[in-house]
Structure formats: structure tokens, C-alpha cells
């Protein structure tokens, strides 16, 4: 069953088209990877799904409901959560306080129930030992883990990850990939935009490629990466050269 459907979604900023008749489905429980060159419109696609951007035309359906005109808050309450490419924690608050804001404001939990839930999520994201640390003093990996924590504290059914593996060492990247695999195994549907392709391929079931807002390829991840079209457009390799 399809959890999310984009149907001929179109969005332009003046002459720049960030979504060009974009259509695809994400099945319940699937992990979908998204790749494409810088500026292809990948983050804009997340903004369209979360509702911080409105499409010029087309339709977005979540769990069978047309959410195209729903507010971001309403989509969040329905179960759509995201991490940001540049982590955006409340730096002057602790890790636990950051988690509590998501659990209370996005998931609608209160008091002891919210606290218990945050501790469970922090355990899952391996940030429990840092619960009382100020978010502003975390390492890059910990800040990425806090992005995951805040998104998970919203109790998402659909988790959107925006380049969460960028800038990490190999060892850090592997440990984050394991956490994302565990989140996926717990039943959360994932769409993951990522330039660190080997991290992506360790998790996703299917890959789509976006260029100039258009879906140019879709399918089994290794087959997509090996296709001449993707090598040429995404990796800049001249297949005739
Ligand atoms: N609010 C906006 N107003 C005008 N132009 C915008 C706006 N948001 C994005 N753009 C432009 O749309 C294009 C696509 O941007 P977007 O961030 O979606 O790409 P991306 O594929 O996520 O890129 P990257 O891989 O570098 O993160 C870029 O040229 C960007 O400058």
C-alpha cells in the first residue's frame, strides 16, 4: 500500500524549476533513496512534502488523504517528520529539552509519558549519555543524531532524511547507517536524500534520480547507479569518452 504519492507535482521559482511533473509512490515500510546533482531540487521536494513550499500544480497524497494544501503542522501531526541538511537544534537547550519540544509540540505527548518516550528515542539514537548536554556543544555526529532524535520524537510514519551522512568519518557514517537501519526495521517509512552513496545503498530498497526537478531514473539501487544515464548526469562521467 502506498503511504506517500506525488502526482505530477510542479514547482518553479521564476526560471528555476525545482519540481517538473514529479510523480512517484512510496510504499508503507519502504526505504527510498534520492540522488541527483547539487541544485536538482531534492531539498525543495522535501519542502513540498512537508508543506513549507506549495506546488504550482499537482497533488500530494499521504495515507490516502490529499494533503496538498495542508499546513506543515498538520502534516507533522499526521506523521511526516524530517531532518535538516544543516542541523537546526535549539543550541541553548539540552539534548533532552530538544527532544521534549518535539514530543510535546509535534507528537502531542505530555508530562511523564513524554519524558519516558524521549528517553526511549534517545536510547535508540545513542544520545542517552548526552541527554543533559547543551545541544550547541555537541560534535557533528551527535548533532546529526539529535536531528534524528527530534524527528523521531514527532512519532513519524514517514521520516525524511536530508543529507544526514555528509561530513562524517567512515566509522561515524557506519554507526549512523546502523541507527537508520534500526529505525527502518522498526517500521518507519524513509525517504533519504544523500550524496554519500555507499551509505544510502546500505539502507534503501529503491532509488530515484532527480535532475532539474525531473525524475530521470527509478529502480533497484545498484542497477540505477550502474546505468550510463546516471553515470553521465549524476557523476559527470562521459560514457562516450
Ligand atoms: N525559496 C527559493 N527561492 C528561489 N530559489 C530557490 C528557493 N529554494 C531553492 N531555490 C533554488 O532551487 C534550486 C534547487 O534547490 P534545492 O535546494 O532544492 O536543490 P538540492 O537538489 O537539494 O541541492 P543540494 O544537493 O545542493 O542540496 C537551486 O537552484 C536553488 O537555488
TrEMBL record:
A biological process from GO: D-alanine transmembrane transport
GO cellular component: plasma membrane
Every ABC transporter domain range: 4-237
Keyword Amino-acid biosynthesis: no
Superkingdom: Bacteria
PROSITE patterns on file: ABC_TRANSPORTER_2 (PS50893)
Gene3D superfamilies in the record: P-loop containing nucleotide triphosphate hydrolases
Span of the signal peptide: none
GO molecular function, one term: ATP hydrolysis activity
Keyword annotations from UniProtKB, A to Z: ATP-binding, Nucleotide-binding, Transport
Pfam families, per the entry: ABC_tran, BCA_ABC_TP_C
Protein name according to UniProt: ABC transporter ATP-binding protein
Organism: Sulfitobacter donghicola DSW-25 = KCTC 12864 = JCM 14565
Amino acid at each position: 500500500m502506498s503511504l506517500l504519492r506525488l502526482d505530477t507535482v510542479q514547482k518553479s521559482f521564476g526560471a528555476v524549476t525545482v519540481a517538473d511533473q514529479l510523480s512517484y509512490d512510496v510504499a508503507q515500510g519502504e526505504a527510498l533513496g534520492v540522488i541527483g546533482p547539487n541544485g536538482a531540487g531534492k531539498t525543495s521536494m522535501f519542502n513540498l512534502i512537508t508543506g513549507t513550499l506549495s506546488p504550482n500544480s499537482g497533488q500530494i497524497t499521504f495515507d490516502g488523504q490529499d494533503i496538498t494544501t495542508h499546513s506543515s503542522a498538520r502534516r507533522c501531526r499526521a506523521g511526516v517528520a524530517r531532518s535538516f541538511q544543516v542541523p537546526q537544534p535549539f543550541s541553548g537547550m539540552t539534548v533532552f529539552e530538544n527532544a521534549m519540544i518535539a514530543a510535546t509540540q509535534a507528537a502531542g505527548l505530555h508530562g511523564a509519558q513524554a519524558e519516558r518516550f524521549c528517553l526511549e528515542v534517545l536510547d535508540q539514537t545513542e544520545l542517552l549519555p548526552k541527554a543533559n548536554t547543551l545541544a550547541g556543544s555537541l560534535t557533528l555526529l551527535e548533532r546529526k543524531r539529535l536531528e534524528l532524535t527530534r524527528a523521531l520524537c514527532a512519532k513519524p510514519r514517514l521520516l525524511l532524511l536530508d543529507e544526514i551522512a555528509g561530513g562524517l568519518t567512515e566509522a561515524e557514517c557506519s554507526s549512523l547507517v546502523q541507527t537508520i537501519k534500526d529505525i527502518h526495521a522498526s517500521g518507519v517509512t524513509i525517504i533519504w536524500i544523500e550524496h554519500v552513496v555507499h551509505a544510502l545503498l546500505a539502507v534503501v530498497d529503491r532509488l530515484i534520480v532527480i535532475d532539474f526537478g525531473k525524475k530521470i531514473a527509478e529502480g533497484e539501487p545498484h542497477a540505477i547507479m550502474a546505468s550510463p544515464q546516471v553515470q553521465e548526469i549524476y557523476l559527470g562521467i562521459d560514457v562516450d569518452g
